[in-house]
Amino acid sequence: MPKCMICGVNFKLLNSHITRTHKIATSEYRDMFGEDTPFTEESVRQKQRENGYSPFSVKGVSKKFGV
Predict the structure, then answer these.
(1) What is the dihedral of CA 56, 38, 48, 57, to 10 degrees?
(2) Where are the alpha helices (DSSP H) in the chain?
(3) Between 12 and which of 19, 41, 43, 47 could a Cys-Cys bridge form, CB atoms 3.0 to 4.6 Å apart?
(4) Nearest partner of 43 among 10, 12, 7, judged by Cα
(5) Distance between CA 39 and CA 2 in Å, rounded?
(6) Percent with pLDDT over 90 in the chain
(7) What value does the mean pLDDT take over residues 17-27?
(8) 3-class DSSP state for residue 40?
(9) Could you read off the pLDDT of 33-64 as tens digits, one per residue?
């Protein structure tokens, strides 16, 4: 489970916590703590792969909204 390096709390999806709570962009967080910092729990990434989700395509969006 990804752990916030700022406050030490574990999250399934770390990126929303960082932007909402600490008011910094994920790119800034990566600059502070390293490029290999995980933002998503492995079980969530696996479920996304099974559902055909990719953060680099609109496939998931088109499935959701019927586009």
Answers:
(1) 0
(2) 14-21, 26-33, 42-50, 59-65
(3) 41
(4) 12
(5) 6
(6) 34
(7) 93
(8) strand
(9) 988 888 888 888 888 888 877 666 655 555 55
* Contacts (Cβ under 8 Å, ≥6 apart) of 40: 2, 12, 13, 14, 15, 48
Report the distance separating Cα 21 and Cα 29, nearest Å. Answer: 12
Report the alpha-carbon distance of residue 35 to residue 12 in Å, rounded. Answer: 18
Q: Which amino acid is at 9?
A: V
Rounded to 5°, the CA angle 38-41-42 comes to: 100
Q: Which residue has the higher pLDDT, 65 or 14?
A: 14
Could you give the CA distance from residue 50 to residue 63 in angstroms, rounded to a whole number? 14
Q: Which two tokens stand for residue 3?
A: 């752990």
The amino acid present at 20, given as its one-letter code, is R
